[in-house]
Amino acid sequence: MSKETKSREDEKQRVSRRGFLKGAGLTAASAAILDAGLLGAKEAEAAAAAEPEVVGPGRVGLSLRINNQLRRVEVEPRTTLAEALRFELGLTGTKVVCDRGSCSACTVWLDGTPVCSCMTLAVDVGTRAVTTIEGLASGGEKLHPVQEAFIEYDATQCGFCTPGMIMSCAALLKRKPNPTLEDVQTATSGNLCRCGTYPKVFEATLAAARGRDAKKGD
Amino acid sequence: MSTQVQAKRRKKRRAGKATTASSKTAKASANAGPASAPTGDAPVPKAATEQARAAKAAKGNEAKPTRKEMMPSGIFGAIMTEVERNIPLDEPPPLPVNAKLSVIGKRTPRIDGHLKVTGAARYTSDVRLPGMLYARLITSPHPHARIRLIDTTQAERHPSVRAVHVLDRVLGNAELRDKSKELPGKYPIVRFAGQPVAAIAATSQVEADEAARLVRVDYEVLPFVVNLEEARKPDAPLVFPGPADQAATAGGGGGPAGVPQKGNVRGPVKGGPQGRARGDVQKGFDEADVVSEGEFRTQVQTHSALETHGVVADWRSDELVVYSSTQGTSSVRDELAEIFKLPKSKVRVVTEFMGGGFGAKFGAGNYGVLAAHLSKKAKAPVRLMLDRKDEHLSVGNRPDSVQRLKIGAKRDGTLTAIHLQVYGTAGTGTGAGTGGPAQNMYACPNILTEESDVFTHSGPAAAFRAPGHPQGCFALEQLIDELAERLQLDPLALRDKIDESPARREERRIGAERVNWANRHAPGADRGAIKRGLGVAQSVWYRLINLDSSCEVRVTRDGSIELLSGVQDIGGGIRTALAQVVAEEFGLRPSAITIRIGDTSFPGGPASGGSMTTGSITPVARNAAYNVKKQMLEQIAPQFNATAEQLEMRDGAIFMRGATGGHASESRASTRKLLSFKQAAARLKTEQIAARSSRSDDYGGFAFKNEAAAFGFGIGIYGGVQFAEVAVDTETGVIKVERVVAVHDCGRPVNPLAVESQINGGVIQGISYALYENRLLDRNTGLMVNPNLEQYKIVGSRETPRIEAVLIEEYVGRNSTDAGGIGEPATIPTVAAIANAFYNATGVRLYEMPMTPARVLAALGRAAKMKGGLS
Fold first, then answer.
1. pLDDT digit string, tens, across residues B11-39
2. Which residues in chain B (317-356) have CB-CB distances under 8 A to chain A?
3. Does A96 sit within 8 Å of B9, measured CB to CB?
4. Is the peptide bond before B243 cis (omega within 30 degrees of 0)?
5. Are B5 and A101 inside 8 Å of each other by CB?
6. B 373-392 → A contacts, CB under 8 A
7. Is A33 within 8 Å of chain B by CB?
8. SS3 annotation, B578-643
9. Structure confidence at residue B663 (pLDDT)
10. What is the percent of chain B with per-residue pLDDT over 90, rounded to a whole number?
11. Is the ipTM of this complex over 0.95?
């Protein structure tokens, strides 16, 4: 078993569902859950009988798979993935703008799917692979075609929305290699840009798709 | 929406408050605001005054010996001529038009693009220093209150808290002229909900947020007023118990001082072209054959930059270092030095990248002052970034307006009088005037604008991308269209008659062709529920120059070149423009130039506001590059038994010039390559050579110059004409902007690629302002009900129309690059173009923004009723 898979296994045990319920069992919220009969009494008992591991409110050790690297962090359960990335891991390419899921500046991928990292708790990430703007360019120096096109077509002004915008556009090309303008507009409809760079974002993304196609054709 | 949103189970943040007042720079320079002094000289026939001005200009550059040279002048592709200028001897020969250059004027991808697309660009909010603490503002939840007591003991006991500081002076609000009019108190009076009171620093952000709730503030709540009309009433609660003034900021905004005030109403300030009322409007209306008038209303818009205002302040034993999200590094340094009584040399402000400002980010700000205090107390760096709510409430906005505009004209279209009366609220600030367009757009012998500020208990306004101008155009350009209709003139034909700007004339011609204006249908001609329309509107903005603009260019023996300046790149791409200008001079590629900017330890750069960055700093960059190049050639020339004048640099090498002189590009055939640039650099006598340059006066002088503020209004104006195509769903009231053709001028465009981006951005912000954005204050509580980014609606990707940015090159021969700005002109006419397109679609005029479905339906309903009543 590789080191990485092993610690992932460890991780699974650390924040298993049971473990979480167990920890949460001490709070008023879960008492309410019990009262409401949402959780079978038996299940709760079984949970209580398991090893007494409490998650939070203090810091919890996590291993996150970020940009193909296993990173250890210690965060409180309330810490969002965005906060963990920016404050704990120094991955400040991911931006926080609204901190409530209305602007998509903090977009990262979880197992390839774009999510708002300000709306995702770090403890909820589990074993899913996190890809941030820093890890989008596979193989070091070579940029992702969307990144290259963003430079060429000037799809940035102040640049603060750019990382989130690129993560949304690159995800679109992954699931739809030949998008229409409307597809790009829809893919970025959650991404706010205050400088108003949308037209160039569309242009760049469509060009990146075309470029990729052309390369395949070679 | 592709982004999957996961449930947010995080502990809820303090929902209540937050704030910081926008800052005013101690050394206020530009007052680009509407109620400002002289603006451009558009309506003045140019030839008549040119000579007098040139004489004045020569006086300005008096200390410098000059030579006479001819410079390109006019609009490329339309009307080109040459103009003679007195050029200081230490400045380079005039550049030919862009077509003859190899780097300037070419579409150039940003040199910092790689950093931005990889997330490596470091913004203020990304700065992490060892031992850095996180701060949180404590702000007032009441719009008007006197603070009896602030108890911080409990907060200080919190194990993670390292420092607490209570604010003793609030920046950004207007201040009473006579302080004795108000009862003295230990703490500043609260005049708006969200006003900062104190700040707290702790070891993490969540702990700072937590501990902020432990600060006890005892408020004596006072009566308030947040509504413009109510605040005008004689018995309204007073925001200030006497006359008050707000200092102008480096980005414009703010109003003039010493204006009469009655109750909450400050003004009117009477103005006209060049700052003074012109002629006699009453006489003008008497002479008119047709008079059009209307009342136009616009709403408050917040800047909502994606990166909020904020700093990381590091109070060290030897100096104060502040990383700031600012549009003016030196304005932050100057204000902090003054407040903390430090020599300017001991305050260093750094802005590597910043996430948008739009006029609101000048000066230290309350957050900056608080962070510096906290850092001093805690002996550790302190990060204080506002949250989204603070950002909406306390660091600036575009004032609202109620404008009564009246225009008189002769039957042939000649204007006889323009009279504007406007009330607007800049909250606890000033500068709600909208007179700029009425004063400066069209030729008219009688012009009077009367601008009044109405104080309300809401956050102070700040300069916002062309202060007063989009609002002013919303009224002016609609009324000009109405006048055209009544005179049975085409709106473009009327403008051709009354508009003296050659740039706009050409822009109208180009745009009309693109949108097929000739085939425009009559108002309300479409039969179905969806009605389409085409409208036009124009921009007016001024050639503002910050003369306090300097830079240094260095060449090192290994052939590397650096430019250093305090100027900051706020997204317009000045980094790349500077690299282009320097590269052009050395005959290299822009990527070969290292641009180090955004740091006050470099030669001082201009603040970025009022579309003045490019016009202020690029000539300086060229002059410095030219002077280093000269030094270099003087060192190399003797090695080839030549003089420096015989050598030239291009294509990465040094050439021996042939018999013919002139610019490099014109004499290529007759030159001989001597050695590469790198080889030449290796032969330098010292490891590094450098030249420093500062902005000289414009060659043709200034229309107006403020010596104290090192600030000038260049001669002439920027134009800009936009055409909008809209589709109005008359059943739902939804307006969809389908296409905008935006034809603009910005002097000599340095990087058309980036200029295009700014034009797109100006149009998109204009659409957003016209249709969606609205700061809503609850008149019963005085609180903002939509301080977020989902209920404060900003245009998104799906509402973005097809935008065609067209750029004309206008040469005026004012300085060594002749480059200008585009930020403001690009957003000024959009709202009016949409409103005029709406009229063309429906035959109904909208007098109020934002043009929401409810307002559209109401207006259509009223019109239908009237029609029904009449028939």
1. 333 333 333 333 333 333 333 333 333 33
2. 353-356
3. no
4. no
5. yes
6. 387-388
7. no
8. HHHHHHHHHCCCHHHEEEEECECCCCCCCCCCCCCHHHHHHHHHHHHHHHHHHHHHHHHHHHHCCC
9. 55
10. 87
11. no
